[in-house]
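In this supplementary section we document a worked example of the pipeline. Step one takes a protein sequence of length 344 as its only input; no multiple sequence alignment statistics are reported here. Step two produces a three-dimensional model, which step three serialises into structure tokens for compact storage. The input and output of this example are shown verbatim.
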Amino acid sequence: MTVFLVIIVLALLAVTGWQISKIFELSKSPDADTSQVANNKDNENQGKLMMGFAVFLYLLMFYCFWTFTNVTLPDAASEHGGKYDNLMLISMLLIMFVQIVTQALLHYFAYKYRGAKGKRALFYADNDKLEFIWTIIPVIVLAGLIIYGLFTWNDIMSVNEDEDPLVIELYAQQFSWTARYAGEDNTLGKANVRFIEGINALGVDKEDSYAQDDKIVRELHLPVNRPVLFKLRSQDVLHSAYFPHFRAQMNVVPGMITQFGFTPTVTTEEMRNSDDMVDKVERINDIRKDNGDDSYEFDYFLLCNKICGQAHYNMQMKVIVESEADYEAWLAEQSTFGESMSEE
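The serialised model returned by step three reads:
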């Protein structure tokens, strides 16, 4: 019923606007120009509006950069994050340069060559030299950017298993994350959704000897400066494991195992005490105080970056980066999969 009433109101507003436009037309003086063809005055106004819009566009752009820079992510907290940020910076600088030049020329030419009585456009059938220039320059720039990006991507994605990285499975389901550590043998036991039963929510194979020392947790702890290899599984729909502060993201696809890895380089405590984060948290807490909310303390989080359903926004897991000693102490407190199954 509400939708029907909204449609009626919108229709009435449209009819009202149409009738008002008719009234304005009738109220014009008899000698007013009612031609639909643009005259010199119209062209002059449109040319000036194009230049005015260009000025407004650039002022707005620079204002946004100046005002909202403080809401961007802090420096990367992973070993590969600097390379990722450099690739992003180079890409954005190229885009900004092309955008500023092309848009400035577009609006300037719209003003310079605005219509005027007696002025005729000059027609070029073709110009091989110009076409070569505006084709070859983008080809060279894009090829260089793509090659640089591929080298960066390969460097990020190649996890050297000779370094004995920490192996962790991230299990996604609507709308939560679960982590499974590989245990002392650093080898994950087999798992399949067909094995899901009772407290075995991840479908770990009970008969697999490698699975007995696996540890299943709801909070992710990572030792600083140690490579981590993540194995990703999904129980239901397509998800995406997103670590914004570590500049890492990988799709989690039902029916297959995807993977990526990184080395965390900044502990949670160090990030909390960094100047940028202290300033950001203070500003957030000022807003929360005005709204009557509890104060906020920074934590790393694993998020889902795919719209995977109604509660997608709440699909997150706390990530704690700590010293090797603190990590080992925490891990020792967690029960193994074998122990959990024996208690069932």
